[in-house]
């Protein structure tokens, strides 16, 4: 079994190397495939390919922040946290393609971090190098590196935190854990999806270190103290400026416009988009979760005209919870569907967005149809598109199968494996909790490095080789 001992390794000293000549090939390969995809996308359809539906919601507040005010639609910004908006605003000063190149650079750098994390988790150079090779070509990481979204920056910073956590589990040095907490806080300011992760990790550390009295309390405390004050400071800012006490309004807006709308649509047997329009979400791409600021929403909720952002969001939160609690079984089933879609979406559609103007599939008559009906239509009407998706799906399934094999093989540190599996479960659970039909392969991006490392462990047939000092 792979789970052998939770004690720190005596023959694996902390390793500060960031490079080895053998990394040159996977790094060059990763850069080549990402830059080639970016070049083809720009040549075929221009900047519209790298622009995503959410890109404008980052760019506007980011450019306002460069002028000293983090705001959107004339009010303090609550939807986006400042990490990626600031990054995008700075890197796009030379144009949107320059911002995409910055994304690519981050993704290539992540190959190196995956190698370091693989070494820390496995103690095996071959597994670590194989993981770097797999990540260099992993479809979701490649595709998301080109689009102007927060995912790639988040992944890079989160990997830095994860690598420090793995190093802590090898040597039990508290300052390493404090650095991991700082990186995790920074990642949360890029994407709030990791907001609850510090508490989950603190609980995990307490369990893993339960037999080490000097650390079982100190380690969780150090992690929380290096993370939570920064998050609390942002919530205080939100409360003072808008009356909203949360970290990001995207949580409450998604509960209302996606989860509650999805549950209502299923219970009443109506189209999801119709129900969402009745709740006040009347816009298209770019309208996003700021709908409560627009006249169309206020026309449906005239009593909220004089309300603050905090009051409107509190209403949406309470209404969403009321619907979910009344139909909790439906919400759970919808969440499981969302989780599975996020975990196994082949991501071929995201690639098409980068390379093809418009939609290749006529979706008329297929709104709110299930995956089986979609598969039948694709095979009958669009055999080449179906073949493309099948190839991508085979890659995803193969990666999971090798990762599963890696979990049950010898040679990896017990605590590090639980760390990797734990964060994977966390991100998949968050994808499921969001519910609604908005599941996408990009939500799987935070766990792709874990899959690559475990798949490498399943592919490399060798006993653990200790890293030299």
Please explain how this structure is put together.
Strand 1 (71-72) and strand 2 (75-76) form a beta hairpin. With 469 residues, this protein is mainly α. Helix 5 (96-122) packs parallel to helix 8 and helix 21 crosses helix 23 (448-459). It has a two-stranded antiparallel sheet with strand order 1-2. The chain is globular and about 65 Å long. The protein has helices spanning 24-45, 47-50, 55-66, 83-91, 96-122, 125-137, 139-144, 151-171, 174-190, 197-208, 213-216, 218-225, 228-242, 250-268, 272-279, 295-300, 309-326, 328-344, 348-355, 371-381, 383-407, 414-434, 448-459; strands spanning 71-72, 75-76.
The arrangement of helices and strands along the chain is HHHEEHHHHHHHHHHHHHHHHHHHH
Helix share bin: 55-70%
Largest sheet: 2 strands, antiparallel
Overall structural class, as computed from helix and strand content, comes to mainly alpha
- Bulk shape: globular
Rg to the nearest angstrom? 23 Å
Number of DSSP-assigned strands: 2
Binned strand content: under 5%
If helices are DSSP runs of H or I spanning 4 or more residues, what is the number of helices?
23
Q: What would the average pLDDT be, to the nearest integer?
A: 87
């Amino acid at each position: 079994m792979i789970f052998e001992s939770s004690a720190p390794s005596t023959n694996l000293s902390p390793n500060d190397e960031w490079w080895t000549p053998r990394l040159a090939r996977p790094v060059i390969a990763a850069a080549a495939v990402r830059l080639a995809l970016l070049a083809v996308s720009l040549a075929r359809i221009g900047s519209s390919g790298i622009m995503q539906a959410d890109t404008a919601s980052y760019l506007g507040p980011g450019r306002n922040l460069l002028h000293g005010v983090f705001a959107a639609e004339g009010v303090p910004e609550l939807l986006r946290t400042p990490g990626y908006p600031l990054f995008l605003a700075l890197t796009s000063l030379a144009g949107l393609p320059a911002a995409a190149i910055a994304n690519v650079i981050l993704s290539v750098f992540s190959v190196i971090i995956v190698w370091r994390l693989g070494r820390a988790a496995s103690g095996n150079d071959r597994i670590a190098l194989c993981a770097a090779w797999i990540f260099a070509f992993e479809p979701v990481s490649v595709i998301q590196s080109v689009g102007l979204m927060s995912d790639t920056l988040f992944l890079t910073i989160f990997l830095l935190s994860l690598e420090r956590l793995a190093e802590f589990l090898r040597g039990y040095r508290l300052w390493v854990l404090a650095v991991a907490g700082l990186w995790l806080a920074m990642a949360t300011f890029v994407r709030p999806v990791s907001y609850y992760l510090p508490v989950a990790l603190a609980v995990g550390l307490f369990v893993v270190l339960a037999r080490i009295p000097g650390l079982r309390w100190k380690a969780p405390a150090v992690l929380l103290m290096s993370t939570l004050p920064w998050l609390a400071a942002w919530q205080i800012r939100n409360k003072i400026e808008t009356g909203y006490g949360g970290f990001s309004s995207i949580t409450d807006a998604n509960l209302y416009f996606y989860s509650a709308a999805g549950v209502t649509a299923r219970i009443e047997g109506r189209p999801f988009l119709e129900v969402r329009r009745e709740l006040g979400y009347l816009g298209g791409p770019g309208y996003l979760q700021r709908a409560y600021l627009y006249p169309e929403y206020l026309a449906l909720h005239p009593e909220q005209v004089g309300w603050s952002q905090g009051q409107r969001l509190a209403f949406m939160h309470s209404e969403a919870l009321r619907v979910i609690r009344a139909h909790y079984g439906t919400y759970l089933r919808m969440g499981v569907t969302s989780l599975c879609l996020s975990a196994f979406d082949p991501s071929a559609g995201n690639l098409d967005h980068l390379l093809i103007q418009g939609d290749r599939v006529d979706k008329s008559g297929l709104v709110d149809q299930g995956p089986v009906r979609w598969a039948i239509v694709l095979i009958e009407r669009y055999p080449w598109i179906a073949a493309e998706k099948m190839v991508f799906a085979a890659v995803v399934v193969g990666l999971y199968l090798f990762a599963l094999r890696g979990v049950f093989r010898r040679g990896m540190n017990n605590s590090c494996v639980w760390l990797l599996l734990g964060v994977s479960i966390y991100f998949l659970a968050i994808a499921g909790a969001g519910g609604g039909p908005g599941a996408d392969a990009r939500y799987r991006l935070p766990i792709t490095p874990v899959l690559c490392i475990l798949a490498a462990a399943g592919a490399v047939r060798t006993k653990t080789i200790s890293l030299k000092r």
